[in-house]
Amino acid sequence: MNFDLTPEQQQLADSVSKYLANEYSFEKRKAIVHSDSGVSETVWQTFAEMGLTAMTLSEADDGFGGGAMDLMAVMESMGEALVVEPFLENVALAGRLVSRMGSATQRAALLPGLIDGSARLAFASLEPGRRYALAPQATLAKAGPGGWVLNGHKCMVTGAASAHKLLVSALTPAGVSQFIVDAHAAGVTLNPSRTVDGFRVAEVTLTHVALGSDALLGEDGAAMPFIEEATDFATALLCAEAIGAMKSANDATLEYMKQRKQFGVPIASFQVLQHRMVEMYISTEQARSMAILAASKVDGTTDARERARAVSAAKIKIADAARQVSQESVQLHGGMGMTEELKVSHTFRRLTMIAQQWGDADHHLERYAALT
């Protein structure tokens, strides 16, 4: 299989990389992180103008019909720049669920705003005490007057505070279902916070939230396969983001070692440190291969078990490489590697969170074993 980028993919990747290099410097990122919203409207609109928000949506919904392979290099650039805008949560999760599950009316109501950047979505799936379980247990939806009544609690909902609509998974008598909920509806309470890597998340409490019958996305009780597929798709792209972050850590560490002198010579000349840098590079390239495999599988197979095995295998390797590269990069920088002023410390935090997001190594080892 040829894993080289097509001319179109390369052109898109170059455009995103150039934009982020010029307009998303480390100092600008810090200003965005510490702003009230934690995201940049200007950056988001630029992503929309570049076609990124429409990339994976179907052509029938005015998207480009692309897949994970089309976004791999883009996600690497975002990982290298430590982009904090909730791109994956909007495009790879919520947008994908609407595109694949929604009726023509629902798609027409939600996807144009996502494509042009005027509206944002957030995927509310995880529940307190349930770790990485995708199936809801405590969030319940019951039939009510003219529709549904929703009660429950969701945690770690990335981008919820800036979202217009929430996609909430809930348990109904028929099984797991997906609902479209206005983020500002009566009974919806958001408790926002900032994660260690600078992203904005929120706990979402749902108290007797009244929904119309048109709030149900897809068929009642049939949401779980779509949720699993979208999460695998997003996890494959998260692996690509991790590659970009690891590349940034490797480059910054090598540059520092060339400048830092000890005994009158750059520490990059010390063989033992060269060996450690080589191991960091090898881990990154091995992880890259696994990320490419995962992206190709989420794009190219209809076998859910095969797709899930490839994604879990990639996430296991990514988690291991993220730990090694992030920790080594900080150690080779010395004490200053943990300071707020250096980008490498923020890269360390992002890689640490990526290793946990949508399942840590232990979770995916268990999942892989169960699927083998």
How would you explain this protein's 3D organization?
By secondary structure, this protein is α+β, with helices and mostly antiparallel strands. It folds into three domains: 113 residues, Acyl-CoA dehydrogenase/oxidase, N-terminal domain (Butyryl-Coa Dehydrogenase, subunit A, domain 1, Orthogonal Bundle); 96 residues, Butyryl-CoA Dehydrogenase, subunit A, domain 2 (Beta Barrel), CATH 2.40.110; 148 residues, Up-down Bundle (Butyryl-CoA Dehydrogenase, subunit A, domain 3), CATH 1.20.140.10. 53% of the residues lie in helices and 16% in strands. The strands form three sheets. The protein has a four-stranded mixed sheet with strand order 1-4-5-8, with helices on one face. The chain has a four-stranded antiparallel sheet with strand order 2-3-7-6, with no helix packed on it. A two-stranded antiparallel ribbon has the order 9-10. Helix 4 crosses helix 7 and helix 5 packs antiparallel against helix 7. The protein is globular. The model has no long low-confidence stretch (mean pLDDT 94).
